[in-house]
Amino acid sequence: MSTELMEALTILEQEKDISKETMLDAIENSLMNACKNHFKKADNIKIVMNRETCDFAVYAEKTVVEEVDDPEEQISLVNAKMMDSKYELGDIVQVPIDSKSFGRIATQNAKNLILQKIREEERKVVYDQYFEKEKDIVTGIVQRYVGRNISIDLGKADAMLTENEQVKGEVFKPTERIKLYVVEVKNTTKGPKILVSRTHPELVKRLFESEVTEVKDGIVEIKSIAREAGSRTKIAVWSNDQDVDPVGACVGMNGQRVNAIVNELRGEKIDIINWSDNPAILIENALSPAKVISVAADPEDKTASVIVPDYQLSLAIGKEGQNARLAARLTGYKIDIKSETQAIESGELPANYMDLPMEEGVYESDVYEDDYEDDYYEDDAVYEEESYGDESDE
Predict the structure, then answer these.
(1) Percent of the chain at pLDDT above 70?
(2) Confidence band (pLDDT; 50, 70, 90) for 365?
């Protein structure tokens, strides 16, 4: 019995990651419960189990008396002497109980307790495994559509990709492998409930961490993300090493790294810009690929006024306002964009602005603090003015 039990526990530990110690505790509890069902009480029952060999024995502790009133808790002196001549009145005798003699109901209840414990431990192991992956990405296999939701096989557990967490227009086939962001893992009586997403902005961040070594190692930081799932994402990056170009690291040689992420996101366009602590420079970068003439930012009110060339106005605003909207989310500023002509009409630019030489820069001192004036006309990395993905709709 002990050898078979040991083998069974070893298999459970290997296949389901349930420790032997936990199962041995469950067996002890089931034996105690079987004794209660069989004898109607178990106050004097003692179970001795060898954790190394899985050998176990069940005893009833009985008091030696002259005349037995309660056979469940007492034993006569004559019977005690037959077991061992050393026993005297008042001694405690451990009387062996044959667990095989338990009734069918008691045995079935003990079995059910063990099975219940196995199921509980299975759920706990799976919950712990996926709880560690909360706020991270996992790879799942599409199983089937359940109404408008999608059932995803994550390996040891299933997840449901709800309609709200799906990217509009994405269609998956059964057995297709996709990457998902684990939003939350809840522990329920029916097992872990795993909420996954394809629309969460953090999905893009985690994909960059898995694809770009510099991001994973912390050399390059993703400071901010703004995303309209399925259409376009803007990310602002910063390097903690002056010798590492953050935009170039994320793009990769010939765009290899960013294109791998674009492909995973089914063609979603990605703009990668340089982060700056100067809000004006950050806003200028965020409006990429549009060119900017000037930016006047108010850090207290979190508002900014931007002037762009007439021919760049539609590009700065973007299709249905998307570029401006994402730039506002990325920077945290409410951005008002005007063309040169509009700025002249409102008095923000002088009436003779068009006739002024480019180098006079009549507004640079109003836009930036002194510390940043020298940086205003510096040529930023070419990647700031590029985006990745299909641009055919713009």
Answers:
(1) 85
(2) very low
Q: Cα(158)–Cα(269) distance, rounded to whole angstroms?
A: 30
Helical residues (DSSP H) of 176-218, grouped into ranges: 201-211, 213-216
The whole-angstrom separation of Cα 333 and Cα 349 is 22
Helices (H) and strands (E) counted in the chain, each on its own, are 14, 16
Which single residue is written with the structure tokens 């990395």? 381
Residue 362 or residue 230, greater confidence: 230
Phi, psi of 54 (to 5 degrees): 70, 10
Tell me which of 71 and 193 has the higher pLDDT: 193
Structure tokens at 306: 């931007």
Are 250 and 212 in contact, with CB atoms under 8 Å apart?
Answer: yes
How much is the pLDDT for 121? 81
What element of type H or E holds 3?
helix 2-16
Assess contact for 152 and 143: CB atoms under 8 A.
Answer: yes
Q: What is the Cα–Cα distance from 345 to 228, expressed in whole angstroms?
A: 34
Residue 65 and residue 59 in contact, taking contact as beta carbons nearer than 8 Å: no
> Residue 131, Cβ neighbours under 10 Å: how many?
15
* Alpha-carbon span 21 to 54, nearest angstrom: 10
Q: Distance between CA atoms of 145 and 181, rounded to whole angstroms?
A: 19
For residue 75, which amino acid is it?
Answer: I
Q: Specify the DSSP class assigned to residue 167.
A: P
Least confident of 40-44, 113-117, 214-218: 40-44
Strands ordered across the beta sheet of 387-388: 220-228, 232-239, 269-274, 387-388
The alpha-helical segments, DSSP class H, found in 40-189 are: 77-83, 104-131
pLDDT class of 357 with cuts at 50, 70, 90: low
Kindly state the average pLDDT of the residues 198-216.
94
Inter-helix orientation angle 256-264/201-211, to 10°: 140
**What is the distance between the alpha carbons of residues 315 and 187, in angstroms, rounded to a whole number?**
48
Q: Cis omega (within 30 of 0) on the bond before 309? A: no
Query: Could you tell me which of 117, 121, 113, 90 has the C-alpha nearest to residue 35?
Result: 113
Q: What is the pLDDT of residue 11?
A: 77
8 A C-beta contact, residue 247 and residue 273: yes
CA distance readout (Å), 392 to 105, 138, 320, 389: 72, 31, 15, 9
pTM for this structure? 0.69
Radius of gyration (Cα) for the chain, nearest Å? Answer: 36
Does 59 or 153 have the greater pLDDT score? 153
